[in-house]
Structures are given as structure tokens and as C-alpha cells.
Write a sequence for this structure.
């Protein structure tokens, strides 16, 4: 029986990288991000750990590029993780910053998921995990676009879940609170935050449930909130 395959977007660093490393025990990894060199270092790390990794340097906001690179790949687990965040008051947010967040955090979900989920439905099995955020439930100053994209992630994920579950494809969203990564500039003590590995554990939990069980949403937050969320 060939090993199953997991494709992780935003695998070059942060939560995506940790997720790729967490999944390598059970899956061959396809690692997607723009930074070819960081993907190569992940591939080396996975291979040292005895795993298999293929890298696909790709801007997931490029619809044509995504179609060319991903359509037709046989993927058992898709982790839609890549994301960007510019937290600014709306009046200071540029049009480019707005469109970048919408393109990477939301529109790419169509490009990437659409390229892969047809095959899952045909094979009658598969799992789509999207990394949302507690910002998908909360609102905050500086979050007019970021929080909106993460609210949209929930609408996407939960509607898709209802559409494809009878076809044997499970869909779930993981909604982390603050995680210590490079997503936004931060200074001072970060030790109260969650780690990328802890979010990777949530993804592992989802995909290791029995096929008859669908945990469709996980909210995970630091036990002690010293930050804004
Ligand atoms: N950190 C937090 O507190 C937190 C909390 C809740 C949810 N999240 C969510 O968790 C996810 C991962 O964030 P993170 O904290 O791990 O951030 P991160 O360390 O900045 O990593 C972001 C990843 O996304 C990739 N990426 C960004 N733009 C891309 C594009 N156009 N095409 C392909 N890949 C792209 C980056 O790779 P390249 O730059 O190499 O392309 C990188 O691998 C995001 O969806 C974020 O919204 C984070």
C-alpha cells in the first residue's frame, strides 16, 4: 500500500513548516511556499527524519500558476495554511495590503482547494484542513481586513464541509490564537504564546481520527492570555 500524501501551503516556516514535520511520519509531504531555499531546507530536514518531501515553490495567489502546478496531483490531506497579516487601522491600510491579504488568505483557498478536491471526491477520501484564526470569530482594532479574511475562512470551510462529507471528504478548520511566529512584527516576551508545534499537533489530531469521525473545528488559545487575543 503506497503511503498517503499531504500537501501543506506556507510550509517554508512557522505553523506550516511545523505541520509538514509533524505529518512526515504518516505522509509523503508536498511543501508549497514562495521561498525555494527555505523549502529546500525543510526537504533536507524531512529526509533526515526518514520522510519524503517534494517541494513546489509557488505563489498561491497566482491562480494560473496554482492550476499549472497543482491540478491533478493526488493528495490525501491538504493543509491550507499560508497566510499574511498586516494589522493596521483601516484608514492607513493601503489598497495593495488589502488585496494581498484577500488574495493570499482567501482567494487562494479557491485556487488550491479547487485544484485538488475533485480528485479527493473521485477517490471518495481526503481531508482539507484550513488554518483560520480566532480572528475569524473576534474583531479588533487593526483587523478590518485580516479578521474579515479569517471570518471568510470559516464560511468557506464549514460550507465546503457540508458539501463534500457525503463523498467521503472531511473538511476542518483550526482556529489558533496567538502563535509565536514571524507572521507579524513582535517584540518583548513571546513565551506566553502558543508554539507552531502545538498547532501542528491539532492538525495531526484531526487527520488521525477514525474515518467515521469528523472533528470540523478546533479553537486553540494560549492558556494564559497576556496578549490582545
Ligand atoms: N501566528 C499567529 O499568531 C497566528 C494565529 C492564528 C492564525 N494564524 C494563521 O496561521 C497561518 C500560518 O501563519 P504563521 O503564523 O505560521 O506565519 P509565517 O511564519 O509568517 O508563515 C507564513 C507562511 O505562508 C507563506 N506564504 C505567504 N504568502 C504566500 C504566498 N503568496 N504564496 C505561498 N505561500 C505564502 C510563507 O512562505 P513564503 O514567504 O516563503 O511564501 C510562510 O511559509 C496563517 O494562515 C495565519 O493567518 C497565525
Amino acid at each position: 500500500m503506497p503511503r498517503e500524501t499531504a500537501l501543506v501551503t506556507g510550509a517554508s516556516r512557522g505553523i506550516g513548516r511545523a505541520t509538514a514535520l509533524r505529518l512526515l511520519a504518516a505522509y509523503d509531504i508536498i511543501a508549497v511556499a514562495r521561498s525555494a531555499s527555505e523549502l529546500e531546507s525543510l526537504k533536507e530536514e524531512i529526509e533526515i527524519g526518514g520522510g519524503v518531501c517534494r517541494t513546489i515553490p509557488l505563489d498561491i495567489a497566482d491562480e494560473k500558476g496554482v492550476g499549472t502546478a497543482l491540478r491533478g496531483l493526488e493528495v490525501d490531506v491538504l493543509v491550507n495554511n499560508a497566510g499574511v497579516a498586516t494589522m493596521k487601522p483601516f484608514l492607513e491600510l493601503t489598497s495593495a495590503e488589502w488585496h494581498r491579504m484577500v488574495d493570499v488568505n482567501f482567494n487562494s483557498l479557491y485556487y488550491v482547494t479547487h485544484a485538488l478536491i475533485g480528485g479527493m471526491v473521485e477517490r471518495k477520501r481526503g481531508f482539507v484542513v484550513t488554518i483560520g484564526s480566532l480572528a475569524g470569530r473576534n474583531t479588533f482594532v487593526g483587523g478590518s481586513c485580516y479578521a474579515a479574511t479569517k471570518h471568510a475562512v470559516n464560511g468557506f470551510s464549514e460550507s465546503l464541509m457540508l458539501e463534500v462529507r457525503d463523498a467521503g471528504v472531511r473538511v476542518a478548520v483550526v482556529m489558533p490564537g496567538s502563535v509565536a511566529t514571524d507572521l507579524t512584527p513582535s517584540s518583548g516576551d513571546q513565551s506566553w504564546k502558543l508554539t507552531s508545534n502545538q498547532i501542528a499537533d491539532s492538525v495531526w489530531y484531526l487527520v488521525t481520527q477514525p474515518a467515521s469521525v469528523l472533528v470540523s473545528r478546533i479553537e486553540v488559545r494560549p492558556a494564559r492570555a497576556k496578549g490582545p487575543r
About this structure: The first strand starts at residue 4 and ends at 9. The chain has one domain: 4-220. Residues 9-10, 12-16, 33-35, 38, 59-61, 81-85, 104, 131, 133, 176, 178-179, 181-183 surround NAP (CB under 6 Å).
